[in-house]
Predict the structure of Enoyl-(Acyl carrier protein) reductase.
Amino acid sequence: MSDLSGLTALITGAAGGIGTAMAEGFARAGARLALVDLRDTSDLAARLGPEHRAFTLDLEDPEAIASVCAGIGAEMGIDILVNNAGHGVIFAAADPQVEVWDRTMRINLRAPWLLSAAALPYLQRSGRGRVINISSQAGVVALDEHAAYGASKAGLILLTRVQAFEWARHGVTVNAIAPTVVDTPMAVIGWSGEKGDKARAEIPVGRFAKPREIAAAALYLASEDAAMVTGETLMVDGGYTMR
Ligand SMILES: NC(=O)c1ccc[n+]([C@@H]2O[C@H](COP(=O)([O-])OP(=O)(O)OC[C@H]3O[C@@H](n4cnc5c(N)ncnc54)[C@H](O)[C@@H]3O)[C@@H](O)[C@H]2O)c1
């Protein structure tokens, strides 16, 4: 298991299904947590231990991103940034839902770009900085009604590679994780009932992923052992995209 003692991990979307599993996993590995979400995560922080802190932040607001990140960096440092918050509304590609499209891009793509940039000075100071961007299988293959979500997650994979390329010289690795459907509140929106059963059957391992399996992938990428891995997208998809 990764030993992250003495390191600070900033996790966005910490109130959600995957974010909570990440918080639990990173806390078990010894990291000090800065939990960030639109929703209050102070109960989660308190449950995990007195050294952890909760921050409320709307990732659609560039100025708030800069100021909250500067506050966390000054108070706690930032060694690991997990850009996990996401917006998962789906609609048909022929349906011009401009506001949903823009919101999806602001949360899933613009916020990881801005937050990573704001965190860079602290990641650089760390000497072993890590950025982990939570993408999706929908950023790799075409899924029905996933034009905006898929485009945002595909963009995040390319953003990961550009950040990795530019920041390798600063001792910062940047990687993405692309899960299949994960059993969380977000998945219920698009993958319940018959649609969910069909989707499970199309995954070679025959089931959706569990939040802790995504956390385990993030813990590996955050670890010292992963220092040579950068610009990669780790598929955690039960084989869905292998063909
Ligand atoms: N659940 C899945 O099936 C699945 C599959 C692949 C990828 N993902 C990705 O994993 C990540 C986590 O998803 P999840 O399933 O835990 O979803 P979730 O809905 O349970 O959690 C998402 C969290 O992001 C937060 N958030 C949304 N907008 C925000 C904003 N503007 N500012 C701050 N916080 C905001 C929400 O409050 C929520 O706590 C997302 O990026 C998602 O796209 C999820």
Observations:
- Helices lie at 17-28, 42-48, 62-76, 98-126, 147-167, 185-190, 193-202, 211-222.
- The pocket of nicotinamide-adenine-dinucleotide is lined by residues 13, 15-19, 37-39, 57-60, 84-88, 107, 134, 136, 179, 181-182, 184-187 (CB under 6 Å).
